[in-house]
Automatic annotation (TrEMBL):
Name used for this protein in its record: phosphoglycolate phosphatase
Protein family per UniProt: Belongs to the HAD-like hydrolase superfamily. CbbY/CbbZ/Gph/YieH family.
Keywords: Hydrolase
Pathway(s) where this gene product acts: Organic acid metabolism; glycolate biosynthesis; glycolate from 2-phosphoglycolate: step 1/1
EC code(s) of this entry: 3.1.3.18
Length: 220
């Protein structure tokens, strides 16, 4: 079965504000103000919790990996508590996924968000049922850009890797596609904007309304 696998953060949904709020909660917890800005630091948010903590500590001029590791579980707990306060699916995302499914494509998710948090978020957003698989950063011992999580997401969705495509928003997604030997389409409405063109994906997605046609052109 032809299969379309989606990244989550920055591709299906703008999760940056809730991610940054969780990181800021950590810094407030030990006596500092908000160290990250929800707009200016949106791209860092999509590189994960540890990346946000490293950025905040760098602005304080203190902290190393031990401090990042110590705060990371606190960040995850804060994030889960407010996981859907500001997060919204990008316009047209639901309609695009529904159109693909109606056309006979399997759909799934491969994200570097911890699996349980991804499950919680997609369930709270009311769209978990639209995806036949959900593979997170900790489902396997490796994560994207290693191709293993991508391959598993295709298989659990009922598809075959050679008839699949990855929809993402970062160079990590581009490198995952290369490693798996599949085409990649990157959205231009994420925090990196048109800058994703520099990663040389097989296609750019300016509007989710264009996705079904792009997918047909790349995997039939």
């Amino acid at each position: 079965m032809r299969t379309v696998i989606f990244d989550l953060d920055g591709t299906l949904a703008d999760t940056s504000a809730d991610l940054i709020a969780a990181a800021n909660a950590c810094f407030r917890g030990f006596g500092h103000g908000d160290m990250l800005d929800p707009v200016a630091d949106a791209l860092t948010a999509f590189h994960g919790g540890r990346a946000m903590l490293r950025l905040g500590f760098s602005r304080l001029g203190q902290g190393g990996e031990a401090e990042v590791d110590a705060q990371y579980p606190i960040l995850l707990a804060a994030y889960e508590e407010g996981i859907d306060r500001e997060t919204r699916l990008y316009p047209g995302a639901i309609e695009a996924v529904e159109a693909l499914r109606a056309a006979g494509y399997a759909t799934g998710i491969c994200t570097n968000k911890p699996e349980r948090l991804a499950e919680v978020l997609m369930t709270r957003l009311g769209v978990r049922g639209l995806f036949g698989s959900l593979i997170g950063a900790d489902t396997l011992p490796v994560r994207k850009p290693d191709p293993a999580p991508y391959r598993l997401s295709v298989e659990r969705a009922g598809g075959r890797v050679e008839n699949s495509i990855l929809i993402g928003d970062t160079d990590t997604d581009r490198q995952t596609g290369r490693a798996a030997g599949v085409p990649v389409a990157l959205v231009t409405f994420g925090p990196a904007g048109q800058g994703v063109a520099g990663f040389a994906p097989e296609a750019l997605i300016d509007d989710f309304a264009d996705l079904p046609e792009i997918v047909r052109g790349l995997i039939g």
